[in-house]
Amino acid sequence: MQKKVTTSFLSACLLIVTGAFFQSCKSQNENKQTEGKVKYVIPDSIRKTLVIDTVSVGKLENSLTLTGKVAFNDDHVVKLYPMVSGNIQDIKVMLGDYVQEGQVLAVIKSSEMAGFSNDLVNAETNLRVAKKNMDATQDMFTSGLASQKDLLAAQAAYEQAKSELSRINRVLKINGGNTQGEFIVKAPISGFIVEKFVTNNMAIRADNSTNLFTISDLKNVWVQANVYESNIELVHTGDPVNVTTLAYPNKVFKGKIDKIMNVLDPSNKVMKMRVVLPNEGYLLKPEMFASVTVTNSENKNSMYVPLRALIFDHSQYFVLVYHGEGNADIVPVQKLSAIGDKVYLTGGVKPGDRLIGSNALQIYDQLNN
User: Fold this and answer.
1) Distance CA 218, CA 190 (A)
2) Is 205 within 8 Å of 108 (Cβ atoms)?
3) d(CA 220, CA 216)
4) What's the CA gap between 351 and 335, in Å, rounded?
5) Please, which residues have CB within 8 angstroms of residue 128's CB and are 6 or more apart in sequence?
6) Beta bridge partners of 327
7) In a 10 Å sphere around its CB, with 0-12 CB exposed, 13-18 middle and 19+ buried, how is residue 176 labelled?
8) What are the structural domains, with CATH classification, of the chain?
9) What pLDDT digit, counting tens, does each position of 37-50 carry?
């Protein structure tokens, strides 16, 4: 019996000693792991050139990028239609040419113009005859050989002949004033020939629905953008916009929304909006594709930081909050919107916090390691 008690006591002691040994080994391993994991401190070589940004507060701005194209400014476009029927004899301009107001664009040989010229000759002849008759009747009336009724009739005939000549001259002036049977097509404004639908020896009719030329000064142009139904509430008349094109990807054309059409196109279910842009140097050409970015402000404030301070990793945005002495922490944030190099965000930081704005990705990787 005493032997069994002794054996049990020894076994219990052995278990206690073994447990203490393993616990000691475990504590030593944990201490080694803790000692091996040292928090990254930004070295002096990086700290010397470190850029520090501050979390600021301002009006929350939204941006929306739309597709569109450059178009003529319809308020500065003139379409020229034939006033008479005839044959095109001499086209003096080509598509894309710049023309001055009053410059001859083409000559139309027209039987109608020849008829107007003949009417002018007849009217001038009739006026001369009526003048002679009136003068002769006046002399006869003075001598008592003609009645007052005859004199009044002669005077009325003269006035009618004068009125007819005036009418014919006005008709000729409206049609170019040429008396050689030709209609001279002239530019009513200065600008570019942006459309041309005629060739030499082409027969035209006065009732033709197709214009001969289209002239636009192109000093300013329209940019028409497509707004989808889900984005209608984000655009307003007067909102500032930035326009870029494929031809000039690094140049931004600034303007404002001039008009919103307020109806949806039934074919593609988009609403059209219009921006009027000055066109210095005639860089913008009609039918160019354009990217239109609309910005506007909301009636609430939000924190914002420079874009360079933001890091995106594993579907999450982060910033590095700097505490000084080379110490920084990784803080997750939620992005609200971005305007240029300004990013609006929420969560994780507070106004006045200092953020690392240079070498952020390198420091982020080191902190994670």
Assistant:
1) 10
2) no
3) 10
4) 15
5) none
6) 324
7) buried
8) 44-60+300-368 (2.40.420.20), 65-74+220-298 (2.40.30.170), 77-110+181-217 (2.40.50.100), 112-177 (1.10.287.470)
9) 567 889 988 988 99
Which pair of structure tokens corresponds to residue 341?
Answer: 């190099």
CB atoms within 10 A of CB 253: 22
Residues with Cβ within 8 Å of 213's Cβ and at least 6 positions away in sequence, in order, are: 79, 80, 93, 105, 106, 185, 193, 195, 196, 197, 198
Q: Which residue has the tokens 């006005």?
A: 170
Maximum Cα–Cα distance across the chain? 184
d(CA 118, CA 110): 13
226-270 pLDDT, tens digit per residue, is 999 999 988 999 999 999 999 999 999 999 999 999 999 888 889
- Structure tokens, 89: 């004899």
CB atoms within 10 A of CB 208: 13
Residues 239, 295: contact at Cβ < 8 Å? yes
Directed axis angle between helix 148-174 and helix 111-143, to 10°?
Answer: 160
The two tokens of residue 197 are 């639908």
150-199 pLDDT per residue, tens = 889 999 999 999 998 888 888 777 776 666 777 888 899 999 999 999 99
Residue 189, token pair as written in the block: 């404004």
Neighbours of 105 (CB within 10 A): 21
